[in-house]
Amino acid sequence: MAYQAFYNKYRPQTFEEVVGQKTVVSTLKNAIKDNKIAHAYLFCGPRGTGKTTMARLFAKALNCKEGLGHQCNACDSCIGIMKGEHPDVIEIDAASNSTVDSVRQLIDNISYQPIMSDYKVYIIDEVHNMSNLAFNALLKTLEEPPEFAVFILATTEPQKILPTILSRVQRFDFNKVTEKDLITNMERVLKSENIEFESEALRLIANLSDGGVRDSLSLLDKLVSYAGNHLTVKDVDEMLGLLSLQDEISLINLISAKKTKEVLTLVKEKYESGMDITRLQNDLISIYKDFIIYVTTKEESLMDRLKESEARQLNLSLNEARNCVETLLQSKRDNRNVDDVVSHFQLTLINMMSEKIVTTESVQKSEKKNVDDPGDRKQNALASQAVEIRSRSNGFVSEHTEEKKDSNELIRYTTTDIVKLMYQGIKQDRVAIKSHWDDLEKYFNDDKYSYVAKPLHLSNLSVTTKDVLLVTLRSPIEIEKINKKATQPLLQELIKLCFGKTYRLLPVLEADVASAIAQYKSGGKPESLECTIDFGEENKTSGSTAFMDELLG
């Protein structure tokens, strides 16, 4: 018997064998059970997710000799469908039959009764390739076909199908199959083939398959031919030209350290040994993305590629990760327009290492130089510079970064502004407000206030003056939600509801407060305690009371 590729050999023959797509399977089974069979369906979704397979299974369930809804795989009807030889199940490739003449021929034949089954099933694959004239010729038949005819249209690009066609079909969207389901399916195949494997190797294959069952089995078939009876991570890396995850983490750390020579040498050596540049580019994007997710959420379950221990090995800042992702994504978009992808990728890496990051040390030096002139905001504005604070406990970086928005939108402040508010702090008011802080939870589900109530509740109340609340957060993402002039009126309403008095709100990063404390300790007391932060309204001044003893104690 001729060799069968895995994706053909292990193609599902019943609804129960379908990988993923539980919603689609359940809906179709119930439709058959309740005898609510539509005359036209549209199966759409990414390649390799089971659209054509599901169409054949549906045809089986309609025509099995054991009765409606069965898939015995033993009767003449089921066997004919499996072999592609059933006279009443007609599969058409729209890519090669896209003309109006092809559709008219189909329409002429549709009126004839089924030969050996109850239903004639027309499966039109890649239906988006049909011309507009062909679609228009099909319209009337789709709307009023014979009772025994069922159309199943399959496509990866539903947006290209005429709205008049879409309105005449039941649409089913096939999703990318989860990594877990792909791995389970590959384990089943390898066990049937008596092939040993490393679980991490299957995870790599599932990741490369991008949610496609067919792609995963095609890759697996290719790798088994290379590896023999024992599939390992090393086999996957060698065969597909991949860097190991540890190699990719090392590369990212070299990029962060701006070691241009080492980075370009490593990439050149790996490329000459068979590394896939495009795959590496995608892997780096995935790793940077996972790092950003972990730093902002601390949730390992939300990451696709990294584990917590691996994320902690990355020695870079959140700002660096964002910049690198943007550079890599732009490079990926430009790949189609370049002749030499390798040289283009090398230039991309050089660009990534050319990003300028302003560190806390440099900012503090700048502040010290200008301590006699606290009004010089160009030199002292933390809100308009990137700030990095390296944590000794985990090596991560928190930062405060200008997001290139309109300067009239963000509330800008300096280290000196924070110090002024500290001197104006009222300890008793802070204690009283802090005791009612959880009252913000009442507004978590409120349509008007929920967007600001949650990040405000996550913040830590640091300073309370006569008319300003200074709060700190670790995450720049949360600060962005409430550090806007346009948001001030809503925040002031919420604060009055919870605490009985109107305060303006100044959200800052914990790193900024740390810098302000350092300035205070160095004797950088402002000459004037008048606070001139622009909250988007007329500025007010506050009186002064001792607060630093309590803060620093």
Count of individual domains: 4
Q: Report the end-to-end length measured between terminal Cα atoms.
A: 82 Å
- Counted by DSSP, the helix tally is 26
Spatial order of the strands forming the largest sheet: 2-3-4-1-5
Based on secondary structure, the structural category is alpha/beta
- The count of β-strands is 12
Q: What is the CA-atom radius of gyration, in angstroms?
A: 32 Å
| Outline | globular
- What does the main sheet amount to? 5 strands, parallel
Q: Percent of residues in helical segments?
A: 40-55%
Determine the mean pLDDT.
81
Query: Hey, roughly how much beta strand do the residues contain?
Result: 5-15%
Can you tell me the residue ranges where pLDDT is under 50 for at least 5 consecutive residues? Answer: 356-408, 538-553
Summarize the entry for a quick read:
The protein has 553 residues and is an alpha/beta fold. It is built from 26 helices and twelve strands.
